[in-house]
Design a protein that fits this description.
Layout (H helix, E strand, L loop, with lengths): L1 H11 L3 H5 L2 E7 L2 E7 L13 H17 L5 E10 L7 E11 L3 E10 L4 E11 L1
Antiparallel strand pairs: 1-2, 2-4, 3-6, 4-5, 5-6
Length: 130
Amino acid sequence: MDEMLEKVRQQFAHDRFATENGMVIDEIGDNYARCSVVLTDRHKNAMGGVMGGVHFTLADFAFAVASNWKEMKTVALSTDISFIGAVKGSKLTAEAFIVKDGKNINCCHITVKDDLGNMVADVKTVGFHK
């Protein structure tokens, strides 16, 4: 799996917004991906907390990897994100689970947690197979 993971990392290196913001692929599996980001000052909002766009981008990246690491064919149709807790740690991790993979669409549930185990966002994405 290490060779496959490295191949997928190279493939998604072209996802410039995510990678330029420090997001990395940690694990892949059938209908699954785990991605993370180490938080720095560039991820902070004006109030000193983590910008909501970081949660969203990490979740979207995990969705893209879970949906496309075997075959690039899926784009997001809609995403619903609930910010449910403040980040207290120094790293965020998103786990994406494809819960339904149909002929034309898929449904994905993504959880975003900090490295202290606090759930900070709950995300649901519907994807379209091109």
